[in-house]
Amino acid sequence: MSQTLYDKLWRSHVVQEAHDENGNSSALIYIDRQMLHEVSSPQGFEGLRQRGLPVRRTQAQLAVADHAVPTRHRDHPIADPLARDQVALLERNTAATGLRYIPLNDARHGIVHVIGPEQGFTLPGITLVCGDSHTSTHGAFGALAFGIGASEIECVLATQTLRQRRARNLRVRIAGRLPAGVAAKDLILTVIGRLGASGAVGHAIEYCGEAIEALSMAERMTVCNMSIEAGARSGLIAPDDTTYAWLDGRPLAPRGALWEQALDYWRSLGSDADAIFQRSLDLDAAALVPQLTWGTSPDQVLPIDGRVPDPADAADEAAARKIARALDYMGLQPGQALQDIAIDHVFIGSCTNSRIEDLRAAAEVLRGRRKADSVKALVVPGSERVARQAEAEGLDRVFVAAGFEWRAPGCSLCVAMNDDRLLPGERCASTSNRNFEGRQGVGARTHLLSPATAAASAIAGHFADPRTLARQEAA
Ligand SMILES: CC(C)[C@H](C(=O)O)[C@@H](O)C(=O)O
Ligand code: SF4
To answer: Where would I find the Aconitase/3-isopropylmalate dehydratase large subunit alpha/beta/alpha domain in this sequence (predicted)?
Structure first.
């Protein structure tokens, strides 16, 4: 029977399957690898300790502290007591159980979803979990990767299995090629706008089509990363030569004969031509434009040349209330042009957009230019590896010359769990993935966009279209 990529990943990991009276299937599936971070893991380790259980497969785990870590003064002890305790606890837990832990000042340190792939811990064909919703990122490699809860972390530590419900298949097919100035971030924001924030609940999204095949691994990770913002726990892209070239030689990737064997297997993973998807969405890349969120949910998104929606135009009462509430929190007026909205901050970072390609895209816009005086701007590379690469290319100097602060890796202003946060009412152009109320600090206002659009907006002091800047340059 023909199968999708998801079906193949699922079936190859089922230990035992069960069907309920509605025909839904759930199964005990084998989990190949788990990543752990300081915020979601303590309860899992504690549960294990209380039950007196050992970790079943220590080599299958990789831990790193990223959410609470400061992005300055990394050579000093962590000043914030809560963050210090969280990091110290992860260090103790991993040491006590013999798990692989990447310390703060290690050359491999960074955001969990950036370093997993970098180290080759993430591989095609595997199941990978983490107590973190953006684990969908790793699906860019053709891995079945999803976020799990605290009790599930304990279960994976103890048994290397999980009971899961099988997802339905949703295909997002993008024809054609992305136009210049339009990024993978614009693509995924468009998709989320079309599907809605809970539109893909219960589904695994497979992204395919010419535009997806043409994406770099960094761009594919940006796309899969935000699958959860449409409600899907997993996003997937079939592995191909781009994937293999990127992984070849990574520290934890297979080598020699094992690499050849793995390649043979990985090449069999793509969805069969006649595989059945329960749902599908088709878009043309040529029609895509830079996107910007205006509200407090990632699906409240519009083209950069759009205007703030008017609750009066909403389809029904409930939709009108939702828009009105978002406008109130965001401090916006119906009908306002998005490009007239002034910003206070720019944040380039997060597991969505902090890879070297993202920094290059932003630096290209900023080279020889300066941010507006009214704007505070921050670049937080996704990992030490990204930071060193950027420094080797002189990108850090481009950012600093443009008036940006160049920081050490971590989640930082994506989630404001460290000391990087905004004040109430402050407005931020952010390359991260969530614009929820309070996400970047109590009362802070977040607008999601691509690195290039963030850079163009930093220069303008208000939201700006990176394509306009490129046209001015050419003129
Ligand atoms: C803190 C963590 C558990 C959380 C998540 O699950 O995603 C965070 O990473 C986020 O992006 O909101
Ligand atoms: S960078 Fe943001 S989205 Fe990614 S794991 Fe950290 S907090 Fe979550």
So the answer is: 7-461
In a domain, 130, yes or no: yes
CATH number at residue 237: 3.30.499.10
pTM score, whole prediction: 0.98
Ligand nearest to the CA of 130: 1
The Cα 203–Cα 181 span in angstroms is 30
Residues 321 and 273 in one domain: no
Residue 435 has pLDDT above 90, yes or no: yes
For ligand 1, the distance from its centroid to the CA atom of residue 38, given in whole angstroms, is 11
* Model ipTM value: 0.98
For residue 69, the ligand closest to its alpha carbon is: 2
Closest CA to 398 of 384, 373, 379, 374: 379
Instruction: For residue 37, give the nearest of 62, 57, 59, 54 by alpha carbon.
Output: 62
- Whether 310 maps to a domain, the answer reads yes
pLDDT single digits (tens) 155-164: 999 999 999 9
Atom of ligand 1 lying closest to residue 411 CA? 9
Is the CB–ligand 1 distance for residue 133 below 6 Å? yes
DSSP letters of 38-85? TTTSHHHHHHHHHHTPPPS-GGGEEEE--SS--SS-TTSPP-SHHHHH
381 assigned to some structural domain: yes
- Strand partners for 14: 29
Instruction: Please enumerate in sequence order all residues whose Cβ is within 8 A of that of 92, keeping only pairs 6 or more positions apart, or say none.
Output: none
Read off the pLDDT of residues 30-82 as tens digits, 9 standing for 90 and up. 999 999 999 999 999 999 999 999 999 999 999 999 999 999 999 899 999 99
